[in-house]
């Protein structure tokens, strides 16, 4: 498969402290790749590197067969990279509709944005006039995803989608994420706890202290290795 997004031997640091020690990751269109690992392993940093919001110390970032190392975040966003940060990034005092319509800055029309959001997540249509802060955690995550989809991304970077949500809700969200991938989007998800995402991922990588310890198909013994390593159950 042709990779859309590639991190090649990426190192990254905060000041003098290196937190990614040369990681290789690639995501193709239609694929869900999970990057798993304990607290502080460097998962969020890897997503920030992929979105261009954190610099590489060395290595390369490739997008659609082009070396985009050092390209500004706004240009990567224009090229189709969409980061949905941990904590959802919705504006709690604005209505659901206004949260969505803010995305017209990307050039998408109001109609397009609402059509994509409300067809994918019908509950958001019902909640359109409510303030986002009154939504459940799962609905807020749907809103964050819908805002991301408004940009018609080629690459979706999701940080800890499951944070604070009940397992059933997480399962439904990942069903949608898998659907989004099937529509041709390359999806890279970061999660601390593995089980929920492994049911949906096509490929998984385990990051420990800034190094990829193992990667492969989630069926290939990776689950038991993960359990043995450190993740326990979730
Ligand atoms: P978590 O699940 O806690 O978000 P993570 O795997 O996403 O963990 P990162 O957030 O990428 O890990 O952090 C990797 C390392 O970099 C950690 O040791 C963290 O303390 C450090 N770090 C993260 N952000 C900064 C920052 N802005 N300044 C300095 N150090 C940072």
TrEMBL record:
One Pfam family named in its UniProt record: ABC_tran
Stretch forming the signal peptide: none
Domain ABC transporter, first and last residues per copy: 5-234
Molecular function as annotated in GO: ATP binding
Domain of life of the native organism: Bacteria
Keyword set, alphabetical order: Amino-acid transport, ATP-binding, Nucleotide-binding, Transport
PANTHER family assigned to the protein according to its UniProt record, in alphabetical order: HIGH-AFFINITY BRANCHED-CHAIN AMINO ACID TRANSPORT ATP-BINDING PROTEIN LIVF
Record family assignment: Belongs to the ABC transporter superfamily.
Name the record gives this protein: ABC transporter ATP-binding protein
């Amino acid at each position: 498969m042709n990779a859309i997004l590639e991190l090649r031997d990426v190192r990254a640091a905060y000041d003098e402290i290196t937190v990614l020690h040369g990681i290789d990751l690639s995501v193709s269109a239609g694929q869900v790749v999970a990057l798993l690992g304990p607290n502080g392993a460097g998962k969020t940093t890897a997503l920030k590197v992929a979105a261009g919001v954190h610099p590489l110390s060395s290595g390369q970032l490739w997008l659609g067969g082009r070396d985009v190392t050092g390209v500004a975040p706004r240009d990567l966003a224009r090229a189709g990279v969409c980061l949905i940060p941990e904590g959802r990034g919705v504006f709690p005092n604005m209505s659901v509709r206004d949260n969505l319509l803010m995305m017209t800055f990307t050039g998408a029309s109001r109609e397009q944005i609402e059509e994509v959001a409300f067809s994918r997540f019908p509950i958001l249509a019902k909640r359109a006039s409510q303030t986002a802060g009154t939504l459940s955690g799962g609905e807020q995550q749907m809103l964050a995803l819908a805002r991301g989809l408004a940009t018609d991304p080629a690459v979706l970077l999701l940080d800890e989608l499951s944070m604070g949500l009940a397992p059933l809700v997480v399962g439904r969200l990942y069903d949608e994420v898998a659907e989004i991938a099937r529509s041709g989007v390359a999806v890279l998800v970061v999660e601390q706890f593995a089980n929920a995402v492994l049911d949906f991922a096509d490929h998984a990588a385990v990051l420990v202290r800034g190094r990829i310890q193992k990667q492969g198909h989630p069926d290939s013994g990776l689950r038991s290795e993960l359990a043995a390593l450190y993740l326990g159950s979730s």
